[in-house]
Amino acid sequence: MDSLFADSEINRPVREILPGVIHYPSWLSTEQQDFLVKKFFEWGSDSRGIPPHQPEIFGHKMSVRLTSLGWHWADYRYTRQAAEFGGASPLPVPDWMVRLGRAALADCYSENHASQWPRLGKGLTRWANSFTPDIALVNYYAPTAKMGMHQDKEERSDMPVVSLSIGDTAVFRAGNTLTKTAPYTDLLLASGDLLVFGGPSRFMYHGVPKVLPGTAPQDCRLDQGRINITLRETGLKDPQAQR
Ligand SMILES: O=C(O)CCC(=O)C(=O)O
């Protein structure tokens, strides 16, 4: 680096990618990333929770390894217990994570910031104070892992999705709400980046076609691959499976 500021930081302003989709680069501090990596390993090795696993969809194993807090995700639905893991329940969503989710929305959707986003749907700013995520999906991408285009529509709430990335940079594909195909916008999610999608884009198709191995910052505690944590409100009260 031949200047005080890396080009990558200068060229990565906070942007509204699509209506209601805000990309906030380097939102997490290095300390916060370290903390989340530590928690990631704790969650993954805690015998009381859901072990990291590769869910099957339509008979195919996903390449991503998933664990979750709050609810278990399988077969496109949420349950409080995981039948395939002997009825184990996910660990609870900690309070600090709810605060983190609210801080993320406050930084992306509050009145102060929302005025910068001409395409942000009306009324989204109220969400910053009331967001109470009851599920965190914790994905680990090995260097070759990817995630196909899909909609997050198992939730019964129109609250935004808050997404945090740590480790290697990934190509994130933001699509449209109607089809899995183009038009879509590709953006790079680097370690520490926040992405929020809500309002008109809450149900957009999206995916991760690629992780860029070896791109994590040198001081990142994750040796390789990428962690992605999405915080959501399920809107589900019933402890039984929902569809
Ligand atoms: O890894 C990402 O950035 C996206 C994750 C995702 O789409 C999901 O968990 O539904």
Give a brief outline of the structure:
The chain is of the alpha+beta class and 243 residues long. The chain is built from 5 helices and 15 strands.
Structural description of this entry:
Its cofactor is Fe(2+). GO terms for molecular function: broad specificity oxidative DNA demethylase activity; ferrous iron binding; oxidative RNA demethylase activity. The chain is an alpha+beta fold. The chain has one domain (16-232): Alpha-ketoglutarate-dependent dioxygenase AlkB-like (Jelly Rolls), CATH 2.60.120.590. The protein is built from 5 helices and 15 strands. The strands form 4 sheets. It has a 7-stranded antiparallel sheet with strand order 1-2-13-10-15-8-5, with helices on one face. It starts with 6 loop residues before the first helix and ends in an 11-residue tail after the last strand. The model has no long low-confidence stretch (mean pLDDT 91). The structure holds 2-oxoglutaric acid. The site of 2-oxoglutaric acid has 11 residues, from strand 8, strand 14 and strand 15.
